Amino acid sequence: SLNTQFHIIKIRNMSRASSMVIDYDEPNYRDSAKQFTRQLPSYTKEYFIDLFPIFTWIHRYNLTWLVSDIIAGVTVGIVVVPQGMGYAKIAQLPAQYGLYSSFVGVCIYCIFGTSKDITIGPTAVMSLLVGQTITSVISSNPQYTGPEIAALLALFGGIVSLFIGLVRLGIIVDFIPNPAIAGFMTGSAITISVGQWPKLFGISGINTQDSAYLIFGNFFKYLPRTKVDAAFGIIGLLWLYAIRFGTQYLTKRYPKYEKPLFFFNIMRNGVLVIFGTLIAYLINIGKSTSPISILKTVPAGFNAMGVPKVNVGLLSEVAGTIPSVVIILILEHVAIAKSFGRINDYKINHNQEIIAIGVANIFGAFFGAYPNTGSFSRTAIKARSGVRTPLAGIFSAAVVVLSLYALTPAFYYIPDSILAAVIIHAVSDLVSGPKFLKQLWHINPLELGTFLAAVIITFFTTVEYGIYVSVGLSIVILLVRIARPRYSVLGRIPLQRPSDKCENADIDRYIYVPTTHRSLRDYVQPTPPGVICFRFDESLTYPNSGFISDKIIEYVRSNTRRGKPLPAKKGDRAWNDNTTPESEDTTKTVLKALVFDFSGVNNLDSTGVQMLLDVQLAVSRYADRDVEWHFAGITSPSIRSALLAGGFGVRSTGDRGEVLPVVPTNRDGPSNKGKQAMPPNTSSRSDLESGSTSDQYDHTDEKDSGLQTVQTIEYCKDRKDEHLDLGVPKDIYPLFHWNVEEAVIAASRA
């Protein structure tokens, strides 16, 4: 970025006052390019070092950290085993694929990640998307298998994510607001919960891959088919919530037992699965068929390892889903990482997190894993378990490996209704409740609309459409805000100076506020006659230039009168002149000057400059005089440079012409609609830059044009105070001002 530099020129000290004039250096892009070229080797070195964050902290690893990481890692591992198998069922995959996905991500992340808390693995939303994709593809192409489709999604989702991270495009995350993310996550959580109801009650014959509203209707239609599975599922769900709320209550009642209560709370899933499996085993003794639905055989080890098959036909089938996969991979992970980084006081690197997700999914595809990303519930558990570094993921992976090689025979009797209870309990945290909706309504109703649209679309269609709708609406709202920015016409409220020894102590100063301000509109006074002040709350660029132009011209014509009366004969008027009698109202003043508060303008492109020139020509013709344009609060040297390139900043007469005309209009000679722009007088600039302090800056004629109209701003100086009060700085260009007050004072003298 360019550093803002100043030329400071102090005017000769007068007996009672002093002031200074400040000028910016013009942006020098050539020097910036040279500086970047010189620093390119160091940038390159830093880039490759940042790819492996583990080397910034691993050399400081110690025994204390190791103990904390083991506790946190094992705790998460105990939770992820039942969750992983349950999520695999949502993804329409055998249970072991959830364990494969739980293993790879946590191993890879510690090398590339920048968050100590986050845990990568299968998640509810991603599992739902993968399951819906597998069902859709297999219904039309039965030659493909679910694991094959899932691995391909993981591979290409990882490749795209890795590319985004390597080229540092993590900024795209900032274009999707939190309400949009919360919307499709809430919709997905509701869809997942409804989809688990048939398993919770042991009801068969319901297609759980239908849209949520169909599952909801069919569930109540087939409710009489409820089996004994409901006893396991409902009791299990009650157990999970009882332990959760019970431990929260006991923690508040007995704070000294917080640690053991916390670990007992997070063990509730494992305890439920163990007891549910034991009871299921006992009731199956001596029976050839199980009276309840159970998980059955889970192969030991990593049986799906191998190079993923990249089938062109299959790739074409899933290509439309890959963008959704990438969006969930990145948004869910980065949102969780940012939240816990903020809570635990450390900063994450967006791009590096995306790289970590990409690499984890690419490697995961070789182990048979389906797309995995950051998990909110397991990340919260890991953070509360006292994790110290990302290396804790290795110990979670060790628990998963142990379960794959030593515990798979015990998985045979896990009741499906128990896994359904675990899933419903887990995804309930993803639902945004009434408090969230109420706050969102008070903050921004449009974002509430985006949230509700995402929830409704996900509920009635699929999570993929929910993602596209929420992201699309967010981008549309962003573009509308840019194309239709807020603007204000400013009035002023007088402020009395406190009395002091200065002879001018009774001079009024003003604050400038919108004339429509709800609390202050009864106190707002108009600006001086013939002066109108505008404030913009957005950059002036090509999407909003036409809108801003129309609003300025419309307001000027509505609140000032013509400088030249209309021809008496209608035949002498222009064909497009729809002027109403109000424009001839003699009680209105003729426009003399426009003041623009640019404190909220951060960017100005060529279309914006051309818009200002067009408006200047239009209002000058309407007023039948050269209307002065004053600018206040310009904070960016690039905006200042753009205005100067358009001829603003100095007094000029006539039509300045076009900056970058799309269709040149002056090839056949100058227009007869206005005078040619006069080149600004630059002699004063060279005098100022050379440090000249001639008397021409002490007193200038306000009717002079060009840069010689620099006027000093005088403030009272207490002679007993050794500090020289320079007051408000003065810009070298007479129509650029540091605040609105000085701009209005100068404009009122036009």
From TrEMBL:
Listed Basic and acidic residues bias regions: 696-705
Topology of the protein relative to the lipid bilayer: Multi-pass membrane protein
GO CC entries: membrane
Compositional bias segments (type: Polar residues): 679-695
Transmembrane segments annotated in the record for this chain: 63-85, 97-114, 120-138, 150-171, 230-250, 262-283, 312-334, 354-371, 391-414, 440-459, 465-483
Biological processes annotated in GO: transmembrane transport
Region named Disordered: 564-584, 655-706
PROSITE patterns membership: STAS
Pfam family, one: STAS
The keyword Oxidoreductase is assigned to this record: no
STAS domain sequence ranges: 529-648
UniProt-annotated location(s): Membrane
UniProt entry keywords in alphabetical sequence: Membrane, Transmembrane, Transmembrane helix
NCBIfam families: sulP
Protein's UniProt name: STAS domain-containing protein
Organism in which the protein naturally occurs: Mortierella isabellina
